[in-house]
Amino acid sequence: MDAPAPGLGEGPEDPFALHHSASAVLDDHGRVVGWSERAQEHLGYPPEEVLGRAAIEFLFDAGDREAVLDAVAACERDRGWSGVLPLLHRSGRRVELGFRARAVIRAGSAREWFLVAAPAQEVLRWETDRSVLDGLFRRSPIGLSVHAPDLSLLRVNRALARFAQLPAAEMRGRRIGEFLYGPDVEPIETRLRRVLETGEPLIFTDQSCRTRSDPGRERVVSVSAFRIEDPGGGILGVTQLVEDVTDRYRARRRLALLNRTSARIGTTLDLGQTTRELADVAVPDLADTVSVDLLEPVARGEETAEGASGPVRRMAVHSVAAEALQVMYSAGEVFHFDPRTPQARCLAEQQPILEPVLRSSLGWYFQDPERTQRALGLGAHSLIVVPLTARGLLLGLLSLWRAERPEPFEEDDLTLAEEFASRAALCIDNARRYTQQHQAALTLQRSLLPRELPEHSAVEVAHRYLPADPATGVGGDWFDVIPLSGARVALVVGDVVGHGLHAAATMGRLRTAVHTLANLDYAPDEVLSHLDDLVNRLADEQEPADGRSQGQQIVGATCLYAVYDPTSRRCTLARAGHLPPAVVTSDGTVSLPDLPQGPPLGLGGLPFESAELELAEGSLLALYTNGLVEARSHDLEEGLERLREALSWPSRSLEETCTAVQNALLPDHPRDDVALLLARTRVLAPEQVASWELPAEPTTAARARELTEATLTRWGLEEMAFTAELVVSELVTNAYRYGGGTPLVLRLIRDRSLICEVSDSSSTAPHLRRARTTDEGGRGLFLVAQLTERWGTRYTRDGKTVWTEFPLATTTEGHSAAAAIFALNG
How far apart are the C-alpha atoms of 559 and 570, rounded to whole Å? Predict the structure, then answer.
């Protein structure tokens, strides 16, 4: 057992110290024979009033004499006594003093009693201090050690002796390094020396503190230390309080790991990045090596059926040792777990597995015995496998290994790993769902927006499309470049109210309608009128019968529709609530033409007007949606001014101009969908176009054939002459018969194809029909359809134009085919 705590009777705080306490001497009959100055200070009696008198007669109240007699009896029995007695002050008030009484033997066997007294409160406080000091060394659960200036141990309490697993007596005089694990000694001694040198206390500092007897067991202690000095300020040593906080440290570390899991996993919705974040967070705080494996459908962003199993894809692997990575499958590899592995059992049972100690004789821990032996040879000694499940779906599994850290996994580690995996699985499933939705959005985008804009002889184009919702990749804005008859082209931009998939679906319907209307060759204002009707019908379809809202409602749109003719250099435009285009001349001058501002689509019943511009060759048209020029950081006027500045560099290519506009006006994440379409105009050379006004008379068809043959010969298209003459003859004949007797116009255009057009003042559309064998006519348009690549009718303010297109690749085989068809149809 420990020796009793050293007495403090000679210390400066001892209330019974002779220079501090009151003292008196009584003879064997109880008479006062000695009286100190301190006794006079405490009780008020001078020596001359008390010497020779019996103490019991004047120092004690009659009611207290029984207690006094008991104390006297104890003195007689035990040759001494200590306790508290009430005394009478000279003034008559009661004074409680603590006493110590000891017998003193004089010469001749005379006996006297030496009494030392101090105020009872001071004695009680001193006794409490003695009890606390004794408790610190005997009963305190917190370790206590007292070190000499050279840091050798003077004394330790029982708690610290138990921590070191050594008897307290054997630790006296020894150094810390004799019973603590080497790497942990230096930090402790360095801090104690700093306390000795500076006098500044050390307060609640955590540090590793493993013992030599069990170095593989993790121990963390909280240390507080202070310097001890004698009354004169001399340094006696340092005392430290040591509390084992290993459990608290582990709990705090686990909580910190879970917090890091929440903060560091799921920073993106990329499945690969999320699994890599999971592996990185787990190493090295929880494990030395970690692998994340997902079921192959999950890795592709798909869902798995309940209880599904099969191949897994290694998504991430991380380790503190490079050698361990050579044993593991690499990220990206697809494989099956052997049924004998813990991972296979985990997938099958969807339950976590803890293998505290790995032994090669008990099973496979990797895919084959060779990998298992290599892993064990690298020190792998403990394993946890946890399923990754979220929302009732099995996604994959997380494998955690320990090799560098000597302590095996415990049940608390398994609990932590389950919580860790549960949080991570939600992030992984969110990433999987995003991958699935993103793939669906990309598919929708590819179906709704043009993949590649067609090359066209009328314009050179470039574009940008930036949805406000990058998660879906689509929005309500759209653009289009639509080839029209007569080498013309339609340029379109539009903006559906709202964002995301709802707006994108409506946009897709409007874009389809625009294509249909463009193929019918409607004028721009007529196209917008038909679109206005369509938007109204869509709004009616979305209105629920019971009047209750069913989510986001798309109620309107804006659109700008332009048709450019490279033969006349004229551009006809109409807009429905949309911003006007920017027109840039070849010298860099930028203007916003004053076009009639029609109402937004969906208001219904209001007219739209067209305007016509004449554009020089090389002019630049910039069509855009309001998301480009309206932003939180600037108003519309400032946005338009920035647009002018970005467009005023005609030497740039269209792609460079698109980039310059984007950099000048758009933040990294625009709040609104943005569509930008740039078109630089081209002009067909005069020698590519031939036009004649012909009278409506029986000989006109022959004249048209002559003109066609001569023109194609001049263009080097002699091989196409026979077919073209047949088609032109039929179109001119129809115009003569049904055109009302007014002159007709024949036009030939040599572009990417050969275009033949016949215009008249009639608004009656020709119809293709199959003639019966007994009919004398009705086969003309059938011939036209068979001999041309495309044909159609467009209406003008003065009548109609029937047009046809021939591919320039027409050869002798095409001539022969035309002759055969002509012969068969009479």
Answer: 20
Q: Pinpoint the alpha helices (H) of 336-410.
A: 342-349, 369-377
Closest CA to 499 of 527, 520, 536, 470: 470
Distance CA 704, CA 502 (A): 54
Q: Are 557 and 494 in contact (CB under 8 A)?
A: yes
What are phi and psi for residue 562, nearest 5 degrees?
Answer: -130, 145
Length of the chain: 826
Q: Where are the alpha helices (DSSP H) in 449-523?
A: 500-519
Neighbours of 108 (CB within 10 A): 5
Q: Are 431 and 274 in contact (CB under 8 A)?
A: yes
Measured CA to CA, the distance from residue 457 to residue 684 in angstroms comes to 8
pLDDT in tens, 189-215: 899 999 999 999 999 888 888 887 777
Q: For residues 514 and 280, what is the distance between their CA atoms, to the nearest angstrom?
A: 52
Secondary structure letter of residue 601 according to DSSP: B
Cα(353)–Cα(287) distance, integer angstroms? 15
Q: Among 234, 211, 238, which Cα is nearest to 151's? A: 238
Position 609 confidence tier, pLDDT thresholds 50, 70, 90:
very high
Whether the pLDDT of residue 554 is over 70: the answer is no
Full DSSP string of 65-85? HHHHHHHHHHHHHHSEEEEEE
Measured CA to CA, the distance from residue 584 to residue 280 in angstroms comes to: 53
Q: How far apart are CA 500 and CA 445, in angstroms?
A: 11
> Which contiguous run of DSSP H or E holds residue 208?
strand 202-208
Return the structure tokens found at 615: 């554009």
Q: What is the DSSP code string of 708-742?
A: HHHHHHHTT-GGGHHHHHHHHHHHHHHHHHHSTT-
CA 796 to chain centre: 57
Q: Which two tokens stand for residue 686?
A: 């005069």
Cα separation of 624 and 575, whole Å? 12
The percent helix, strand, coil of the chain (3-state, each to 5) is 40, 25, 35
Q: Which residues contact 772 (CB under 8 A, 6 or more apart)?
A: none
Tokens of 412: 């608390």
Q: 3-class SS at 627? A: coil
User: Edge-to-edge, what's the strand order for the sheet holding 153-156?
Assistant: 153-156, 143-147, 235-244, 220-229, 202-208
Cα-Cα-Cα-Cα torsion 499, 448, 530, 793, nearest 10 degrees, comes to 160
Contacts of 93 (CB under 8 A, 6+ apart): none
Tokens 């290993």, located at residue: 246
Reading the block at residue 71, the tokens are: 């104390």
Residue 92, token pair as written in the block: 């008559």
β-bridge mates for residue 207, sequence order: 221
Q: What is the pTM of this model?
A: 0.57
Residues 159 and 82: their CA atoms lie apart, in Å, by 32
Sign of CA dihedral 720, 722, 725, 730: negative
| HSE-up (13 A, CA, CB side) for residue 788 | 25
Encode pLDDT of 2-51 as tens digits.
Answer: 433 443 333 445 777 766 788 899 988 889 999 998 889 889 999 999 99
Of residues 329, 340, 257, 341, the one with CA closest to residue 293: 329
Residues 288, 378 contacting (CB under 8 angstroms): no
Q: Which two tokens stand for residue 558?
A: 């804006």
Burial class of residue 250, CB neighbours in 10 A (0-12, 13-18, 19+): middle
Cβ pair 526, 588 in contact under 8 A = no
pLDDT recorded at residue 18: 65
CB 533 within 8 A of CB 510: no
- In angstroms, how far is the first alpha carbon of the chain from the final one? 131
Distances (CA, A) of 421 to 299, 399, 407, 609: 17, 10, 21, 63
Report d(CA 728, CA 803) in Å as an integer: 10
CB 684 within 8 A of CB 487: yes
